[in-house]
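Notes from the 1:1 (GR / supervisor)

We went over the backlog. Supervisor wanted to see one worked example end to end before approving the batch request, so GR pasted a single chain during the call. The sequence is below; no edits were made to it. Supervisor asked that the structure be written out right there so they could see what the output format looks like.
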Amino acid sequence: MDLDQETGDSADEPAGDPIEDGGDEGSGEGAAPLPARLGLGLLCGAATYGVMRISLWSDTALESALRKAHVPAPRLVMAAAGGVAAWGLAERERRQAGAA
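Structure output shown during the call:
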C-alpha cells in the first residue's frame, strides 16, 4: 500500500483547507477597507496612549499628595486602598448576583 493512499494525501490536492486559508486577508466578504482599518488602529492606539498617560499622571499626583501628607509608605497605602476598593466592588457584585 502506498503512503499517499493511507493518508489520503495526493500531490494534486492543495495542502491546506480552503475554508481556513481564506486567501488574501483584505479580499474577504465583509472585510473593512484598508483606510478604515488603519483609522481604527490609530484611534485605538491613541485612546490607549491617552489612558496610560492619565493613569501615570494620577498615580504620580496621588503619590506626591501622600508624601506631602507625610505618609511613611505611600505606595503601600495606595496598594492597600486599591485592594480594599477591589474587595468592595467584588462584594457588591456578589450581593447583586445573590439578589437576582
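Supervisor's comment: The chain has a mean pLDDT of 84.
Batch request approved.
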